[in-house]
Amino acid sequence: MRVPSDEIPQADSLVDVVRTVIAISQGGRTFQQIAQAIGKVERQGRYYRKAAEIAGMVVTPTMNHSILTPLGQAFVRNNPNLGSPELLRGVLNSRIFQRVIPYLESKGITGVTRIEFEGFLNATADLGTVTMAHRRISTVISWLVDLGIIVVANSRYVLSNQAINQRIQNIEFDNPDEPLLPNPNDLNEYDLVQQRSSAANETIVSYRNSAALERADNAHRDLVNLTSERIRNAGALPKFNQLIDLATHIADKDYIFEMKSTTETNEKSQIRAGLSQLYEYRYLQNKPQAKLVLVIENSLSAKELWRQDYLEQDRDVYLVWDGNNELYGNDRTRNDLNFLELIP
What we know:
Blueprint: H1 14-25, H2 31-38, H3 42-54, E1 58-62, E2 65-68, H4 70-77, H5 85-92, H6 95-107, E3 112-113, H7 114-124, H8 130-147, E4 150-153, E5 156-159, H9 161-165, E6 171-173, H10 188-199, H11 201-215, H12 218-233, E7 239-241, E8 246-250, E9 253-260, H13 267-284, E10 291-296, H14 306-314, E11 317-322, E12 327-328, H15 331-336
Helix pairs in contact: 1-2, 1-3, 2-3, 4-5
């Protein structure tokens, strides 16, 4: 699916998007009031309000009456500026930038030329007329530069994973039908993931509700944070959506992680659940070669120890467990997942 035209910003100045959010926080509700507050004509008031909506800061639930989202409220509270983690989180949770980041990520330190970047955006998004397409491409690039997450070197655009990882812990993908680990050279993959997600909608709703409950659990949250930190330390970008706890691309390999809080009384059911979820997530994301990793809260009890061999030798799923805020794994897992810095 191509990104719809109305999800692509037309407001070049991210500074003025920030000013728009501040104006709304101070009582500006209509696009006319916003335009006046930021020194623009009324038409631009619409553009900048829409840009703030795309960035996740603003919603307009009734005709021409805008309010801040919870993310926008947090942004205003915490010294609103271009370096804000809330702003980066909101921008990267928009569909167009969730297409752009994996594309730039796949190009590594060589980056892309302006012409290559324009070709990708034209293929993945509905940019409108030729004139409008050029303006919107300029806006997307301008936002990335203003956020400090791409640098221009020798007329090439290079993504800075470090700049992203220094400000946010994980990149959230709000839509489960958006690939977390796409192959930017195969745009048909976006349609396939959407088709599979649509067909499995009832299951996805069930998993989404279950995931929301699990993520409220402290042990589960600790496992995600610990694993995410190791991924960031390896220079990669940890991503997640409403279903998948973490996914990342490292050294030309894709990884999908499922975290499970465990005790001796529930380890069997939790491991079974995690195993089935990993296989289903890999299918829904159309990543048959992705490495699957199950991360559990405690080491296996003596009666369930056999499951490690079952998971790793029979199911080809890596098992990792927490212990005193460290991650553990067997020899094969430590060797294959060396970026996790596992302990024997």
